[in-house]
Amino acid sequence: MRLPFRLVYSPDYHLPLGAHVFPAEKYRLIHDRLLKTGEADADDFLEPLPASDDDVRLVHGAGYVDRLVHGEISPREEMQMEVPYSPELVKAFWLSAGGSILAAQRALEDGVCVNVGGGFHHAHPDHGEGFCVIHDVAIAIRKMQKLGRIRRAMTLDCDVHHGNGTAAIFPPKRDKGRPLPSVSAAQVKSEVLTEAPASEAEVFTISLHQANNYPAYKPASSIDVNLPDGTGDEQYLAWLDQALSSGLRQFSPELICYIAGADPYREDQLGGLDLSIEGLKRRDELVFRVARTRRIPIMVTYAGGYARNVADTVTIHVNTILAAKEVWKDQ
Q1: What is the C-alpha separation between 180 and 222, in angstroms, rounded?
Q2: Taking Cα atoms as reference points, which of 215, 144, 205, 198 lies closest to residue 172?
Q3: Domain containing residue 306
Q4: In b/e form, how buried is each residue of 85-114, taking b as 16+ CB within 10 angstroms?
Q5: Distance between CA atoms of 187 and 174, rounded to whole angstroms?
Q6: Alpha-carbon gap, residue 235 to 251, rounded angstroms
Q7: Cα dist. 41→4, 45, 188, 309 in Å?
Q8: What would the pLDDT profile of 150-165 be if each residue is shown by its tens digit?
């Protein structure tokens, strides 16, 4: 082993999409890059089993799950998912959810684990959206709770797009008798919606995303940071630090689920932020140092990445692993 933690990966993560803006080959390319550069070897990788249908039903309605499994998805549902339905697609998403379950288990044992896949944060309980069929991270959280491994989890979503599925699955608790506090700077507004004591909340959700981007309707997360177009490295990192610090003042998670999107990158086709590759690695280092300093286990999933050059997306995702290696190198 070359890494102080394990990576979860399967060659069957590949999504059968045909010609599509989503670079389905990126999972294989990340795996191959790590081996070619010697940053990882075969023993660093764990291969997951698919999630069971019962696991998926911990988050998604039985009717929706049955329609996916039995090929009864309607044309409207397929259009909303924005990926072509096939039995092979369902198998890949079930496997990705199994990967996130395994990554959560290993993170609780080892302190950190990376699923080289997953992060399908737009999926809702009763439908898929935005290239996301089921919500692997939510399934992993509910599975860990069902097994009694954790009670409280935090999701930290650093995809360029708002984590609307996460917010729909884990709506924040509110104190109806008090106004919702907000913090603003220039065009950036961070709305802190969760005011329930940490002991009353199960999942605390944080989303940093481009305000003027998909989805049009953004249900409230516990903390939403709505970033203006063109936000660069320094401003992004400052808001990430503030959001994470604010969340951890309010809530004490037993597991952080970090959705490390590659699409805040300045060359992303579906994004409008201005982060550099180095800035994205600094983002990852910040998150990992907070988790390790506070001794909070952290599981990582990958999310969007649609750079014009797919090699840039691969570099960004590989850098997430290298950032974790740097933080846990003395483990």
Answers
A1: 11
A2: 205
A3: 6-327
A4: beeebbebbbbbbbbbbbbbbbbbeebbbb
A5: 25
A6: 24
A7: 12, 8, 42, 25
A8: 999 999 999 999 999 9
Rounded to whole angstroms, how far apart are CA atoms 220 and 12?
A: 34
Alpha-carbon torsion angle 304, 306, 311, 314, nearest 10? 0
AA letter at 292: R
Burial class (CB in 10 A: 0-12, 13-18, 19+), 264: buried
Confirm whether 1 is domain-assigned. no
Which DSSP symbol is given to 226? Answer: E
Q: What global pTM score does this model have?
A: 0.93
Task: Quick: pLDDT tens for 217-270.
Answer: 999 999 999 999 999 999 999 999 999 999 999 999 999 999 999 999 999 999
Residue 238: CATH number of its domain: 3.40.800.20
Report residue 2 as tokens. 């070359």
Under the phi-then-psi rule, with left for phi > 0, alpha for psi from -120 to 50, and beta for the rest, what region is 94? alpha
Q: Is the bond preceding 125 in cis, omega lying within 30 degrees of 0?
A: no
For 245, residues 6+ apart whose C-beta sits below 8 A from its C-beta are none
Please tell me the distance from the alpha carbon of residue 100 to that of residue 48, in angstroms, as a whole number: 9
Evaluate whether residue 43 is within a structural domain. yes
Place of tokens 């699923």: 115
- Name residue, tokens 């399967």: 10
Instruction: With a cut of 70, list the residues of the chain below it in pLDDT.
Output: 174-201, 331
